[in-house]
Amino acid sequence: MASTLTVDTIQGATTAANVKLPPGSIVQHVQLSNTGRGAQTTHSSNSFTHTGSKFDVTITPKFQTSLILYNASLSVHAATGSSYGYWELRRDIGGTVTSFGDDGNYGMSKIHQGLWLQIPLFYVDSPNTTSAITYKIFSRANANGNTVYTGWNSASDSKANGCYVSVLEIAQ
Fold first, then answer.
1. Rounded distance, CA 66 to CA 25, Å?
2. Most exposed residue of 10, 52, 64, 86, measured as fewest CB within 10 angstroms of its CB?
3. Other CB atoms within 10 A of residue 141 CB
4. Is 49 helix (H, G, I), strand (E, B) or coil?
């Protein structure tokens, strides 16, 4: 006995809530596009300061239960006189900024003065939202007047290092 299925239109799910992905599936990937020359910022403060939009990356999760995996490798420098430089990842959702620096999940890096170094910033976030999230880098020197640099500049030792930021939404 033969069967026939006839349809006029097949329409996919209209919202992410109607889609079921296996846990661990990559839902989407966003990366920083401004990694070239001139993407360098300088700060001379012992208070954390936003490095500016050159290192910001925004993702809008499709699922409220998703994890967001943030990976960055940044070229940084603490100038002579700065005993240390610090870099911290923060999350901004609708103007509410959350720091990850003290939760023990690799949201912060620190270097000693002197050389340009490549530092990793890695964080697994559970933002519990489908609103746009902007991940931002903040930096500071150990004392006022000392200088820290983030980014790449062809006129310095930083030219051997790059800046890369990648964010993945992972289904749960």
1. 10
2. 10
3. 24
4. strand
